[in-house]
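User: I'm new to structure prediction. If I give you an amino acid sequence, what do you actually give back? Let's try with this one:
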Amino acid sequence: MILEGKFYHEDFKGHKGFIRAGDVQWLTKGRGIVHSETPKYDETSRVRALQIWINLSRQNKMIEPIF
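Assistant: Good question. You get back a string of structure tokens that encode the predicted 3D arrangement of the chain. For your 67 residues, that looks like this:
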């Protein structure tokens, strides 16, 4: 969840865009997803976010990614 400011998200599957204050991003990584979230700010802005990562069970670690 983005608390303040914004992040730019992109992954190798072509998903990309900004995540702004109040937005929540949900995905199930599964196998093979490479992604990045980069804070975007200038000298007058703050960027604050909360990330929670939940480890998938053994039988779900190699599933297709879900966006």
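You can read the tokens as a compact description of the fold. Here is one thing that stands out. Residues 10 and 57 are 25 Å apart (CA to CA).
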